[in-house]
Write a structure and sequence with these properties.
By secondary structure, this protein is of the alpha/beta class. It is 45% helix and 21% strand. It folds into 3 domains: 54 residues, no CATH class; 225 residues, Endonuclease Chain A (Endonuclease, Chain A); 163 residues, Endonuclease Chain A (Endonuclease, Chain A, 2-Layer Sandwich), CATH 3.30.870.
């Protein structure tokens, strides 16, 4: 036999080994859709598919980090067991109590009563309100944002941190590695943090030479601020200009629309616990001896709130289970606001089943897309949603509706950093706040009404006129969205 023949046989044998091995390895502990997407990639583009699988095929954090997450979860669970977390509202439905138990079992913080929560829908007002809270700090400020940039819009926020540091307040800052490094104003931001004396770290750094490596597309997507354990903020907004300072966004005239919530009461301790767990994961510093985490006091409100952290540090997809549970519990109305709505089978089934149960369902998304693959993957679900009876509102360009929230009937809501897409369910570290209280839902209704006034209704008739090229792009993007 010739060398060419032997080479051909070797290639065939290698190809067979790769395909058989993929069938054995890929589906293990993986959702069927994700497994099928990976197998298709490996079968049709073997070399690239295998390389991508080896690079990003493991959606979990390294074992050491998962063990650290488990330790901090155990500590919080034990120290908060039996503590008085405020007086809970009476008459909670059975489904709500069981959902709280589910969250707690999966790693959430206790349900806390006696809380106040105020929504802040204006972008600049949110930054300035957080700056005002930082200026009231007496002991510490905890800042954790997916994107943190010192620019014209955030200058007041950074000056507030500088003033606090000058007064001797301890300022701790966490920002995501990939979302910030190499982006506009990154060097200026880190220099400013150094000058003010802030203690800061990059989250999920990919620095193999320093012994820090995990799947490179994992992100800490959380947004939160805690001041002295008294006041906290969380929601969808990053600390950056509404254009994200990106040239392509400025050229297209894009601006982000976000929603933050200011909270007071025992739930602040829960938000602080999320920060402390992330700080411990990045620094191995235990701050619970320095900070009395559960020395809580009633807030000026009457809301029941529960903080639900989620991400690859947890065994299960906490946010997905929470969202699905809420949708199945709804009896009258579901309003979803999500910039990236790319559901898995469970969530899509929950939404369409809700419509079939006679529940009024509305979904707010952006008319304009800022991420092509996610934008087209999201569009691939519109027909199924419209046929099921979901009313889809498209927030008019050139604005990107980036808020992440949901209301269920007239008493329950959720707000946080988590999108309703497969990335947020499996790859991002997220934070969500479950709220029970009619007064908070009324605030949400006002925000929803504003969004509705600035949106247009997408009909099935309009959607059926989509050109074939759009359908092809949407379907291809839908396949790639499952690669986890």
């Amino acid at each position: 036999m010739t060398i060419t023949s032997w080479a051909l046989i070797a290639v065939i044998v290698f190809d067979v080994i790769v395909r058989v091995t993929a069938v054995i390895v890929v589906p293990r502990n993986r959702r069927p859709t994700a497994a099928m997407a990976w197998l298709l990639a490996i079968y049709f583009i073997p070399i690239i598919g295998v390389f991508l699988f080896l690079l990003i095929g493991n959606p979990r954090l390294p074992r050491k980090r998962r063990q650290m997450q488990d330790r901090i979860n155990d500590y919080i669970r034990e120290t908060s067991r039996g503590l008085d977390f405020g007086t809970l509202r009476p008459g909670a439905p059975t489904w709500f109590r069981s959902l709280v138990t589910l969250n707690r079992t999966l790693g959430a913080l206790p349900l806390a009563g006696d809380n106040a929560a105020t929504l802040i829908p204006d972008y600049q007002e949110s930054l300035d309100t957080m700056a005002e809270a930082i200026r009231s700090a007496r002991a510490y400020v905890h800042v954790e944002f997916y994107i943190l940039q010192s620019d014209v819009s955030t200058d007041n926020f950074f000056r507030a941190m500088e003033e606090a540091a000058e007064r001797g307040v301890v300022v701790r800052v966490l920002l995501d590695y990939w979302a910030n490094r190499g982006k506009p104003f990154y060097k200026e931001t880190t220099r400013r943090l150094d000058r003010m004396g802030a203690h800061w770290r990059l989250m999920l750094p990919v620095q193999p030479l320093k012994g820090k490596y995990q799947r490179p597309d994992l992100r800490n997507h959380r947004k939160l601020l805690v001041v002295d354990g008294r006041i906290a903020f969380t929601g969808s907004q990053n600390v950056t200009d509404s254009t994200y300072n990106l040239r392509k966004n400025i050229k297209r005239g894009l601006h982000w629309v976000d929603l933050m919530v200011r909270v007071q009461g025992p739930v602040v301790a829960s938000i602080n616990a999320v920060f402390l767990s992330d700080w411990y994961s990045e620094t191995e510093e235990i701050l619970t001896e320095e900070i009395n985490l559960f020395d809580v006091k009633p807030g000026p409100g009457d809301l029941d709130c529960q903080i639900v952290p989620s991400g690859p540090g947890f065994e299960f997809q906490n946010n997905l289970k929470l969202f699905a549970g809420l949708i199945y519990a709804a009896q009258e109305r579901i309003i979803i606001v999500s910039p990236y709505f790319v559901p898995d089978e469970a969530l899509l089934l929950a939404v369409t089943t809700a419509c079939q149960r006679g529940i009024h369902v509305e979904l707010f998304v952006s008319e304009e897309g800022d991420q092509a693959m996610v934008y087209h993957a999201q569009r691939s679900y519109y027909e199924a949603l419209l046929r099921a009876g979901v009313k889809i509102w498209m927030y008019r360009r050139p604005y990107i509706l980036h808020s992440k929230c949901m209301t269920i009937d007239d008493e329950t809501a959720i707000i946080g950093s988590s999108n309703m897409d497969m990335r947020s369910f499996g790859l991002n570290l997220e934070i969500s706040m479950l709220v029970r209280g009619e007064e908070f839902v009324r605030q949400m209704r006002d925000v929803e009404a504003d969004y509705r006034a600035l949106s247009r209704n997408l009909t099935l008739e309009e959607w059926e006129k989509q050109p074939l090229r759009s359908t092809v792009l949407d379907n291809l993007a839908r396949l790639t969205s499952a690669l986890q």
